Amino acid sequence: MKGKVCVFGSFNLDIVAGMARFPQPGESLIARNSMMGAGGKGANQATAALRAGARVHYIGKVGRDDFGSFARRHLAGAGFDAVTLFSTGECPTGNALIYVAGEDAENMIAVDPGANLTFSDEEVRQCRPAIAAADILLTQLENNLSAIEQVVAIAREANTFVILNPAPFQPVPDSLLAQVDLLTPNATECTLLTGVQVRDLASARRAAQVLHAKGIRLLIVTLGTQGALFSDGERSEPIPAFPAQPKDTTGAGDAFNGALAAQLANNVPLSDAARFAAAYAAVCVERAGAAASMPSYEEARERQRAPVS
C-alpha cells in the first residue's frame, strides 16, 4: 500500500506569460507565449506527491465562479485518492498572474488568494478524519493562518508527521513553528524567518541554528541551483542540485515539497527523500506550467542517475 499524504492548501488558476525579460514599471511588452492552467501551492504539491508515488487527499477551497468550476473539473480528473473542496460565494477563486522571463526562466508572480483565505473553523474540523488517516500532512502559507494552525494541531494530536513549506512568506508565531516536524523554506523565506541573509550553504547553516532555537526539529533550506541544506540541529548535510535546462521555475519548490512528502510517506529516510525531491524538481523546471509540469516517479529516478553539480 502506498503511503498517504494529506495536502491542505491553496488552489489558484494560473495565467502565465513567457517573456524575453521582465517589463519595467509602466512598460508594455509583447509576450512570447501564454497559457492558463491549474496552480496554487496546495494543488501543485498534491499533484507532485501523487505523481511521485503517494496516495493523496487534497483539501482546498474555491469560489463559486468560472475559475471554481475549472478547479472542480481539474481536481476530479487529477487522480487523487480523495478531494475535499469547500466553496464560498463571497470571494473569487484564487488566481495568479505569472511572468516567466530570461534564459534562467525566473518568475515574478502576483497572487489574489481569494477563497483560499476563507477557511472557517467548522470546515477545518471536518478535515480531521483525513488528516488523522494520513502518514504526512503537507501544508503551506497560502491559506488563512488560523486554519493552518488548526490543521497542524489536528495532525499533532493524531501523530501525523507535519511538513510546513512557509511559502508564500507571511509572519508566523514561533508557537506554530515549534509544532512542525519538518520546515522547508527557500533562501528568501529562510532570510525572512531568521533575519540571517541566506545566500549559500554557509549562511543557510547559520540561519538553521536560529530556526532550531525557535523549536524547529528538522529543516531543509532549498537554495535553487546550489541544491539544499538539511539540518537537524546537531548536524547538517548538503543536498546536491541535479542538472537541468530550466524552462519555467514556477513550480520548482512545489515539486520538491510534494516529492519529499511522497517519499517520507513511503518510509524513505529523510536524506534519501531529499535527494529524490531535488531530482524531481530538476525535471519539473524543464517544463512549462506548474501542476502540468510535475514529472513521474520514474523520470525523477532517471534524473538521479545523472551526474550532480
UniProtKB/TrEMBL annotation:
GO terms for molecular function: ribokinase activity. K(+) binds at residues 248, 250, 284, 287, 289, 293. It is an enzyme of class 2 (transferase). It catalyses: D-ribose + ATP = D-ribose 5-phosphate + ADP + H(+). Pathway: Carbohydrate metabolism; D-ribose degradation; D-ribose 5-phosphate from beta-D-ribopyranose: step 2/2. Its EC number is 2.7.1.15. Substrate binds at residues 12-14, 40-44, 142, 254. Its cofactor is Mg(2+). Requires a divalent cation, most likely magnesium in vivo, as an electrophilic catalyst to aid phosphoryl group transfer. It is the chelate of the metal and the nucleotide that is the actual substrate. The active site is at 254 (proton acceptor). Residues 131-158 form a coiled coil. Activated by a monovalent cation that binds near, but not in, the active site. The most likely occupant of the site in vivo is potassium. Ion binding induces a conformational change that may alter substrate affinity. Belongs to the carbohydrate kinase PfkB family. Ribokinase subfamily. Catalyzes the phosphorylation of ribose at O-5 in a reaction requiring ATP and magnesium. The resulting D-ribose-5-phosphate can then be used either for sythesis of nucleotides, histidine, and tryptophan, or as a component of the pentose phosphate pathway. PANTHER family: RIBOKINASE (PTHR10584:SF166), SUGAR KINASE (PTHR10584). HAMAP family: Ribokinase. Homodimer. This is Ribokinase. The lineage of its organism: Bacteria, Pseudomonadati, Pseudomonadota, Gammaproteobacteria, Enterobacterales.
